[in-house]
Amino acid sequence: MQTKTLGIAIITIGIIMMVYTGFNYVTTEKVVDLGPIEINKQTNHPVQWSPIIGGVLLIGGIVILVLDKKGRT
Questions:
Q1: In terms of Cα–Cα distance, which of 56, 67, 49 is closest to 14?
Q2: CA 59/CA 66 separation, integer angstroms
Q3: How far lies 8's CA from each of 27, 69, 71, in Å?
Q4: Could you give the dihedral angle defined by the CA atoms of residues 63, 55, 49 and 22, in that order, rounded to the nearest 10 degrees?
Q5: pTM, whole model, 2 decimals?
Q6: pLDDT tens per residue, the chain (73 residues)?
Q7: Radius of gyration over alpha carbons of the chain, in Å?
Q8: Staple partner for 18: which of 33, 48, 54, 73, CB 3.0–4.6 Å?
Q9: Judging by beta carbons within 10 Å of its beta carbon (0-12, 13-18, 19+), is residue 6 exposed, middle or buried?
């Protein structure tokens, strides 16, 4: 049962990684602070990965499911 759950989880992660090839997050840092005047800088940090990695995970999950079914018979 746990092998089947692992295979399904890997397939799901692989599909998500193929559809969404990355995300961005923003950090804010204080540049100048002069009494009531404050200047902040927002920096964008992209995180990208190749959709090929998602395809490899998808195929790996399918292989895990197939091997689990062969082992039960």
A1: 56
A2: 11
A3: 34, 13, 17
A4: -110
A5: 0.70
A6: 688 899 999 999 999 999 998 999 999 999 998 888 999 999 999 999 999 999 999 999 999 999 988 877 6
A7: 21
A8: 54
A9: middle
Tokens 């397939």: give the residue: 11
Six token digits for residue 42: 């927002």
Please report how many Cα atoms fall inside a 13 Å half-sphere around the Cα of residue 43, on the Cβ side. 6
Token pair in block for residue 37: 């005047």
The size of the chain, in residues, is 73
DSSP state of 26: E
**Coil, strand or helix: which one is 53?**
helix
- Structure tokens of 7? 């295979």
